[in-house]
Fold this protein.
Amino acid sequence: MKFKADEIASVIQKEIEDFRGEIQASEVGRVLEVGDGIARCYGLASAMSGEMVEFSNGVNGLVFNLEENSVGVIILGDYLDIAEGDEVKTTGELLSLPVGDSLIGRVVDPLGNPLDGEGPIVTSERRPLETDAPGVAGRQPVKQPLQTGIKAVDAMTPIGRGQRELIIGDRKTGKTAVALDTILNQKETGVICVYVACGQRAGSVAGVVETLKEHGAMDYTIVVSSTASDPAPLQYIAPYAGAAMAEHFMYQGKHTLVVYDDLSKQAQAYRQLSLLMRRPPGREAYPGDVFYCHSRLLERSAKLSDELGAGSMTALPIIETLEGEVSAYIPTNVISITDGQIYLEPDLFFKGVRPAINVGISVSRVGGNAQTKAMKKVAGSLRLDLASFRELEAFAQLGTDLDKATQSRLDRGYRMVELLKQPQYEPLHFADQVVSIYAGTNGYFDKVPVNKVAEAEKGLLEFMRQEKSEVRNEIIETEALSDELIEKLKAALVEFQDRFVKELGDEAAE
């Protein structure tokens, strides 16, 4: 066998031409100063904004500031191990984190590392921390309801899949409780939930995880935890990490719900980082781009078009106000980005009206589009009735004598307020909500004493499930109230009302 020299030469030449040197060229710099979660580094002339860099001890950082002579880096981990003069090298990559089914049921930090002691997370899929939000053409209108299981929300400030509904109020007014009830109510709906704890106490986060486990909700939930003791950079990236994990499922055509608890703490972490980096402070010492910080996060929530798989990502951002100051900088920013807000009022909360939703200020800008036909029909006048009841109540406190019609409106209003109260971690099926609100607005609880309304409602729902299941099932199947179905419902309500009033009479007689 003869070797042809020209053939061998051509093969070698082709190999040389096709060769791409797989040499990892990374720029190496030095740490000038370090502290409070940030580092200034020199020698990284080609570093890009948002690029990931690696310190000599293995901790990652994110390029935050590009200055004339140095680069400002936020340190994503323990910055106490990094010292002046340490090496730092560029990676040429954007910050990414693990995503996928293996994260469901786990508690992770904002970088995707497990915090629950249940072993490593095995997944080959990764997603950049920040990606562009879908454009106008990539979205479709929000039409599908996302039931929260809370009567006052589903009836008056409904949430649709793909919507962003702000939960706002002072501390200890039940904001997290509303979000958790919504997560619990997604059981068996196929909605994957992500709960982002940003700047919360570690004890509170442990309590949330325990509650979710107790009600079987961890089977479809990911908890991203960045507690108050974590460095500011981790608190800053936590909401983006939660959004990336949910986006992975949204682009697979699935439905997701993300709770950001809370964005006030993220804004404070961002302010801290910006001031340390010597960025100029603006209103309330926040940097001028803090609006962009929240808008680029919340714009990632969407109901995707059919071409993109029709998946959805619903966001429930939480904002804490100080002394009810809704017109402060961060609250007004987030109100202007979201599609409505649920405002929780301390006065109502301390009066025992829970959830303490202020009907006047709370609004959903999607409205009836995010409701089933049945709910739209029964809840149509509820908001106005409650608002007029509040005015009447204030008028009645003046001690004036009221005519019979006004007194009966007041009495019904008191009963509706009782009816909309709901214990924590007890979300209701939408059919039960429809029955309950229809009964209240049409006077079927008028003969029941105010302090017995909750008991009557419980009895009514039990009665509908056990004895009138065909009526309840028809509401679930059709999601609408036909004239024929309303007649059946009325007959059932009259039967229950007579029975309950008789039982009350027997009790009183005893």
